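Record type: ASSEMBLY
Status: queued
Input:
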Amino acid sequence: MGKNNKYKKEPNFSIKMDFEYGISKSLGNKIRRIIANNPSNFTLYGTGTYIIGEGEVAIIDPGPDDDLHINAIAKELEKEKITHIFVTHTHKDHSPAAKKLHKLTKAPIYGFGKHPKNFNKELSFVEEGIDYDFSPTINIKDNEIFKGKNWTIRAIHTPGHTSNHICYELIEERVLFSGDHLMGWSTTVIVPPDGNMSDYLESLNKLLNFSFNICWPTHGPPIQNVANFIKSIIKHRIRREKQILKTLEEKDNITEIVKVLYKDKDPALYPAASLSTLAHLISLVKKGQVISDKKITLSSKFKIV
Ligand SMILES: [Zn+2]
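Status: finished
Output:
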């Protein structure tokens, strides 16, 4: 899921092989992408399911529980074999198709555990997007390496968007598959309590230890200058945190803070902006810079220490 500021529905959208971003040309036939027909504010043109390799392939993010999409993957690979199903995280636009693909192909499902049950009533509208049914057949660890036919993939644990978020690197090409951790067209939504702003920033910094040629998010176009892009996101989040601290001199609650900080933005974005502000405030309270009047929720009152 991402928070889209520039969403434009692609005209005449239909399920198709996604070569419009030149993926097959720039990287040979090693990487393919099939886009699911689930365009939205959170998925842009839809979920991009990646196919790595030829003959014996890995899948990254099988996508939503949509038979048309699953059949499109099966059809593309009818003369090939899926050996690995990798999942970046447990949101319904990323993981549910893993189950049916596993049934069809017997390929193991790799993921960083189930989605933790830390249900928060106040945020129940977000819970709808969570795939609580997901269960990997193989639990992966940070920095674990997987070898396939002519490809090697490294798992990089990147908590923040969700606590079980994994980015994958195709080592031979130094290509990063960033799931929802990095998106070129949108800000990643951090929804507490499972989403965590401090973890998110740490995970961004962690990626700076690598050197990637290009990054392909699960939704939308590629990110070319990966390190610069990551640095700009870190800067943006730090700036936002400073703005929140400044606004706290006058305002003491999230609704008011959001009205000030997002005054130029469409009010339709306010619910997502409130979540992001909440995530920042949780992190500020943890760092001891802010206190809250009660257990931190959207309706808490905050004060600078
Ligand atoms: Zn997501």
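Annotation: Residues 1-27 have pLDDT under 50 and may be disordered.
Annotation: The two ends are 33 Å apart (CA to CA).
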